Protein 1
Amino acid sequence: MRLKYFLSRKELIKIEILDDLLISQKRIFPKDLTRKFNVSKNSILRYTAELQEDLTIVFDDITLCCSEDGDYYLEKCEWQNRAYLINHMKEFYIDNSSLYLVLKAVISTNLTIPQIAETLNYSLSTVYAKLTTLNTLAEPYEIEIDITHPSRFKGREFNVRFFLYHILLFQNRTIKQNPFPTNIPQIFLDLTNIETNLISPKKLTSSHEMRIRMIQGISLYRTTYHQEWLTEDDSFLKDIIFFNESNFNLFGDNDLIATSSQLIESRVFCFLLRASVFEIESFQEKRKIISKYQQSGLKIAQKIEYILESFAKFAKFEYTTAGYTESYYLLLINLIYLKHVSIDLCVFYEDDTFSENPYDKTNEAFISNSSKIKAFIQENSFSSFFTKIPSHKLHQLVYILHYIFDINTQPKQLNIFIQFSKNIHTEALLAHSLTSSFSSEALSITKNPDEANLFVSDSYEGKNCHVEHFFFENTYNSLEYQRLYQFITRLIYDNMFFKKIE
């Protein structure tokens, strides 16, 4: 789901100008921006003037300024970091976009299309065009916005709720007590029942709480005001049974709701919450859930064990104890999705970018790994498990298996040989500083130059030195130490992330 559906190109550029101002280590002039965005100087001057006005509307204490030399800079408080500012501005532009205003009218009111047009002061053709775009966003969820339908949607109710959750999550870039576009009963936002009877962490972050409120609020709103209940088949309910908590009832002690409806809603909610807010579950609780599946004899549990074993042999790695638990739990959730839920989650999670940045580059190791993992999935001995799943949705499984490979594969260690001819103390100083700053898994200091893959030296080591070399010339220059740390961090990054399947 991309911002370009909600925002104009001008607004996307304004967000990126703000981002450049926040992260740039050098002064930014209009000519830099005209080259980057391929627009005229007059356009940049207009965009920056509008951005300055927008910042004034959203914030009380941040100003976009232009120096006497003609470069742009921001005056802001120290606590206002990049995430805070960028997300606030994205949220501001989304809230005021015509697409979101139409969506808000659809899900929050009972207005007809002519009434929506009149209320928003839009033409009928504009409203119809926005509804077409919204249905483009809804298409991967295999649902359709239908104004004539009592609940405003046609399609599987589970998918409708997932769509609404993703829309809310996409729109709410900052933390709110009520993330919904309209007032809803406070009881729909209260988390006491969930915190007491469902999840194990004693302390949740603000973002955790907001996402949980979204899922609970959507479920209770759809059942209470639209009388839309989940009607899931026994196969799905059987596969998610061990995510359920027997003491948890989404509706509390409400005797007016049929027991069967309460049971289905509560069981699906338990799964949906743990699958959507993945990190809220403790490691111990994941182990308990996995143990139940391993002892259940369910076909999906057998599939997972087969996949994990086969993939480890294919990619030539061994699971750590913690890695196997995380891998099993994540693969379990995703196989349930692939088997029972007709949604390609990559549409939402992988495409949330606000500009086509030519400097963004997909890691080459990931590209290579993806190709190999796809081949692994499509092998005859493996594909029998996925005969009922559309091939284009296996793209999600590629990401999951790549993650499983990454967390269970030990990074290559950086072995550093340090040599100084100017004094006898810098070598010991650097060795101590580096081993204190980085873990032993990331790097080690070696006395054998043949074992090293990095030389730190104040001398030229000759043409026969075929490993990385850092020339450390002046031991009294603090910038030398800074550059050394940056150089080593880059090498560790290359070893640590996006490991390559050989």
Note: The beta strands are 63-66, 72-75, 143-145, 153-155, 414-419, 443-445, 454-457, 468-471.
Protein 2
Amino acid sequence: VVNRVVSLLNQQAKLLSGGQPIQIPEEVLDKLCVRLRNDGELLQVLGSPAALSLWYKLERSPLDSPKLRMPEDSQQKYVLKALTDGYYRDIQAVVKEVVLVASAQEASSKMRQLHEALDAVRFAAKAKGGPLTQGTGGLMKQVDKASAEAADALITLSQAKVEAQEAAMRVGKGLGKTWQAKLDELMVAHKEVPDVVAELRRLDPSKAKGSNSSSKKS
């Protein structure tokens, strides 16, 4: 039964990530396995015919999906709620954190491309001895494209942060060092681009608090 639940949790992680394989940390799986082994009532119910007949549905949809509607006061409803509250939420938090890190890496890549496009424009303008026109070698179009992609990546990153925070809070955790470390890494990587740093600071709760305090004092 425990192995079947572990397999289900791995499948849930894959569903939550849009089909991408997610490596659930061993310590998370170990903790959930211990929790399950100590839940004799749930273990017994999971071995029942009613639970076994439900399994194929659980493997095809996220456990919090509206598609998984069970009759009230049924054994299947009990199984779904127990697995969702006691196990699925932990997996959801892991997946959302993985997505957050991936979004941060994508944002970093897009901002690096913007930085390179701006450098190319500055270099060309310096060589020309004046500002570039819109059609000069397609450089300004590259800046426009890189700027739009960087903006989209930052929006995606911001949304990923919100979703990761919400998922972490459901299991009584916070993003803590993971989010701050990624944000600090991006700020260092793009410290020479003030506009990018300004955008990143908006995503930094510690910086936001500092700016709010300063504005109140003034």
Note: Residues 208-218 have pLDDT under 50 and may be disordered.
